Amino acid sequence: MDLKSGPGDFDPTQPKRATLEEIEGVLFPNTLREHWGTIQGFKARPDDLLICTYPKAGTTWIQQIVSMVQHRGDLEKCNQKPIYERMPFIDMPPMKPFVSGVEQADLMPSPRILKSHLPVQLLPASFWEQKCKVIYVARNAKDNVVSYFYFHHMSKIMPETGTWNEFLENFVAGKVAWGSWSDHVRGWWEAKDRHPVLYLFYEDMKEDPAREIRKVIQFMGLELPESVLNQIVEHTKFESMKANPMANYSTLPSSLVDHTVSPFMRKGTVGNWKKHFTVAQSEWLDDTCAQLLKGSGLNFRTEI
Description:
single chain; transferase; 6 strands; P-loop_NTPase; two-stranded antiparallel ribbon; alpha/beta; Rossmann fold; disordered N terminus
């Protein structure tokens, strides 16, 4: 598929694509509106571990790492259920054939590992009240926007993208689902000074996965032998996860995602943006990010 083309033609008999709607100053798929009160009223438990990211920033990767750490490197235990059943997505409204993420989480025994894409200011208050641990992963804007664009194409329920140029401009302006990338990464970066947040960078994870997984193990309060760490590194490689039906979302109904358009796990690299950005777009985004992140101390690498 040509990334610079428009969104293409989609079968109108398929599930309706969401539109964007502002909720508390942030744009979300309109399907969240009816369930927003339930999401905000979510009852966290003290031993919950929340994985939070901006969409397409390495969410599934860190979920699988945490799951492998939780199960002490035992892939068979991890593979008993698809990743979206192991770790409820609390932002998700009911969507046939699934119940809402909140309902799914409420039915789970503790300790729970949960997933969210919510910006820090909209996280349900119970997470702060219960002092829950949060693992946050941030990815450079260029690779993030390319991955998000492709995801919109393969998802049958996300809003339409428009052209690549339009999507890029909307991404930078925060006019996409879950809002502004810069506000998201900056908000969570600042939150780590006040709350138990482990802030990781996608690029660091690609550069030295063992080093970053050690941080996760320590943050989760565990000690694992080097042999188990090596197992976790091996089974959470992109190639391993892409071939694992319990991690690659291929078990979702085709009415929700179409892997023939683009696989859910597409590239998993740092620097793929170079195949999609013009020089002018690259320079514009560099300048814009520098302004948006100014004074935060946040620095992103766009290649390693």
